[in-house]
Amino acid sequence: MVYPWTDIVNSKYFTDPLELLGEKSFGSPDDIPDDEIGTPMQEFYRDKTIFLTGGTGFMGKTVVEKLLRSCPHLKHIYLLVRPKKGKDIQERLDAIFEDRLFWRLRAEVPDFRSKVSAVAGDCSLPGLGLSETDRATLVKQVNIVFHGAATVRFDEHIKMAVKINVCGVQAMLQLAREMKDLKAFVHVSTAFTHCPRERIDEEFYPVPLKYENLIQLISETGDEELSEMTPKLLHEWPNTYTFTKALAEPIFYLLCSTVVSTYREPVRGWIDNVYGPIGMLVGIATGVLHTHLINLNTVTDMVPVDLVVNSMISIAWSIGESGKVEKAINKIENNTLV
What is the pTM of this model? Predict the structure, then answer.
């Protein structure tokens, strides 16, 4: 049974996510003494440098905002950004921070921009398209990696989907292995990676095709022929998105269902797109959409983006505190993508 959100919030078993995370915002960085002790999670992020891919997207922007607002002693954030639509990486970074999402941050932490830098790169390119200088900087300085970049188009050509969603993860892991003081690596995936299964548990499932074989296939086959082969390659998977995401497991990963607007922070109800269910709601609200076919027996899996972001930040903290990242990276090297 699916309960209304109001019933959940009013339940005696409900704990506000912000209380769980020790949420704390500040009037000005100057008001925070360096020796002030924060929550265990805030202390974990003290003096840490973060590398984030997908930072220009819906979820990535929310991660950046949350970290800068809630972790006052965070050292720096590097965002992987590619030039797009005639804009260079600095212009794209400037455009990101004009979003309403960052209004609260600008008021509470006025000099937050000094802690964010853009790094030119592209997850569809070998080695993430990083320059030697930028790669050396990341290897030397980064402590925590959040890999959120992906192509989420259901109709993406399989060659591009593999380059970004499989080879991109492989390149990120290779970079992570070189990092001198890596504490945590978190890969953002989807709860629908193994959608052909009726039930998904917290475990890694086999896929019908080895990623090495698929990478070799797309490198040796033309686009038109690959398009014809795609339905057979996908087996039971409905699209290239979920299929390539499944190939990129296992790793430290966070599985999200359909991510929608913010529940509470930094502002209620913020979203920057009309994809998926949001597009449907906009269509209904504007009177454009009058009917929609639904299955009354299924659960609508949606989650507010700020709760997902809080989970991402918590997972990195948990991994870092456990001290298991080196062992896990070595295991990944021996069994999967590296």
Answer: 0.83
